[in-house]
Amino acid sequence: MTTRDHLVLSTMVRTLGAFPSGWRYPGAHRDPAKDAAALKRVARAAEKAGFDFLFLGDWLSTDTDLEFTDPHLLSRADSLSTASFLAAATTRIGIVGTVNVAHSEPYATARTAASIDRLSQGRFGLNLTVGTDARGAANFGRAGHMPPVDRFDEAHEYVQVLQGLWDGWDEAAFVHDAVSGSLIDRSLVSTLNHVGRSYAVAGPLNVQRPVQGHVPLMHAGTSRRAQEFSAASADIHLVAPATLDEAVGLYAETHRLVAEFGRPAGSLAVVAPILPIVGETRAQAYAVYDTLVGLFQVDDGTGTAADLALPADRSVQSLRRAVGLPLADRGIDDVVTAQTAARFNPAGQRLLGIVAERSGRTVGGDRPVTYRQLLVAQLVRSPIVVGSAEDVADRMELWFRAGAVDGFGVLSAFLHEQFEEFTRLVVPELVRRGLVRDGYASGTLRGHLGSTVPERIR
Description:
By secondary structure, the chain is α/β, with parallel strands linked by helices.
């Protein structure tokens, strides 16, 4: 069992969809120039459904190759700017923005985070990313040789500085005594004077203490260092385990570390992504998934692959290693016969299982398996659950009751139909089962997570 009595429910906002071909679905949002309206619509739908928070990831570079793998990363508004924008468009839902430790200064981050938390009346959270990719690093280069640093050691110090700055002002520091002329009680304002390995920060911050005391922190990753960092400092830990068994083990170990760091049970919410494709019926959901697979751009042998500059792994032949057969004479939309499937290696058999789970298609069945379906199963490894509201709720309840997660980050294959179908169909089913709250019991993100405001450390 988890340490909570209800799911933490969030949505991972990707305006161009979390499925590579989602933007091509009829009626889907596909123009980043119109993201402002799309973001508002998602935020308000999530708030109406009672989601605990919106999660705004970030990516510090772009590349045209992302067109076919992660189109949502091609162009996206800055995460903290988006958080401020959505705070003004909502009233109850939490909003988590993202900052990369390697490419930001803690004073600036502390100031911005405290400002958004104040302006949103305590609804902001901060996701800290620790690593950096080559393209992102190339956008933040500095002249000369930079000595190597341990990113997680740096991140621990970063958090220490953030929280020290947030504690610079006592809630009672502004006395605003017009008679005496005293605006503040100076004894309730403290400098930081932090000098460490990576940072030297004087303080105090020129923003009052956040409404939530310390802005809730989030971190993602399944590595040992990521687990330890989250267990020591975070309020939300985003993980992406491949199986239920792996998730249960990861959950147990993470919460063991939470206790080892002296934090109370329930102080860290472990959240996993889920990409539901939902319909009124399972058959309707299968139809949506089949359409997405049909729109997935592949090399169909007509010569368009070169024109589109498709990745090399978008052909039947690229399945060779996965299934253990050459498949030289197969077309992308050919049916996989029983004789061929019987010769697949174990990895190929697993792909057949994924296709069956996502689409209900079976070799030799009324809805046969095609090589296109196999290729998409190999290339799109998101945690996809296809089915009715009951099917999706069953999966979420299974993981929650098994002690694998405290909650989920809901991805949408495309906007807006699929997200709004989730809020219309799945959320009421989760409420009926007592897995999520019906509405809000608190006005702050900490309140949604069930955590208290930390005491100020002077």
